[in-house]
Amino acid sequence: MSRQNSLFLAVAFILFVFTSSLKAATTAGPLPITTIRTGWNADSFGIVTNQPIINPANCSAPDGYVSASWDAGYKTYLSVTLTAFAMNKPVTVIVSDTECVANRPKIWGVYISK
Predict the structure, then answer these.
(1) How confident is the model over 13-60, as pLDDT tens digits?
(2) Per the omega criterion (within 30 degrees of 0), is the bond before 30 cis?
(3) What span, in angstroms and rounded, lies between the C-alpha atoms of 2 and 108?
(4) What is the rounded distance in angstroms from the CA atom of residue 38 to the CA atom of residue 33?
(5) Which residues contact 84 (CB under 8 A, 6 or more apart)?
(6) Which residues pair with 46 in a beta bridge?
(7) 104-112 and 91-101: which strand pairing?
(8) Contact 80, 74 (CB under 8 A)
(9) Domain at 24-112: CATH code
(10) Which end of the chain has fewer beta carbons closer than 10 Å to its terminal beta carbon, N or C?
(11) Between the CA of residue 28 and those of 16, 32, 55, 64, what are the distances in Å?
(12) Where exactly are the structural domains of the chain?
């Protein structure tokens, strides 16, 4: 095998490993927030909307999108959600394709829309 072919295969392998390890997410929205739910005896919150819940991780109770205080980004998600709710603005929710929180789709991001 030539040196050029070996280099090509090495780069292809590195790219494959890198892209395989990236987490996948799904976007839902823009959505109106109808309710912000707090956790029952847990530091968590949920976004409830009147639109169908996107549930790529097949969570067992998909009645909203949830984040818990131990999740990275929790304080930012909560702040953006409360701001959007107070301003009556729709949000776009990014949810994990593979993880659930309290049996609901796990929030990975929240965007406020105009």
Answers:
(1) 555 544 444 569 999 999 999 999 998 889 999 999 999 999 999 999
(2) yes
(3) 44
(4) 14
(5) 33, 90, 91, 110, 112
(6) 37, 66
(7) antiparallel
(8) no
(9) 2.40.50.110
(10) C
(11) 27, 11, 10, 11
(12) 24-112
Torsion angles phi and psi, residue 60, rounded to 5:
-80, -15
Instruction: For residue 73, give every residue at least 6 positions away whose Cβ sits within 8 Å of its Cβ, in sequence order, or none.
Output: 67, 107, 108, 109
**Cα–Cα separations (whole angstroms), residue 12 to 1, 9, 21, 45:** 15, 5, 14, 41
Q: In sequence order, what DSSP letters do the residues of the chain get, joined into one string?
A: --HHHHHHHHHHHHHHHHHHHSPPEEEEEEE---EEEE-SSSSEEEEE-SSPPP-TT--S--SSEEEETTSTTHHHHHHHHHHHHHHT--EEEEEEEEEEETTEEEEEEEEE--
Residues constituting the chain: 114
- Which residue type, as a one-letter code, is found at position 83? T
Residue 3 pLDDT: 62
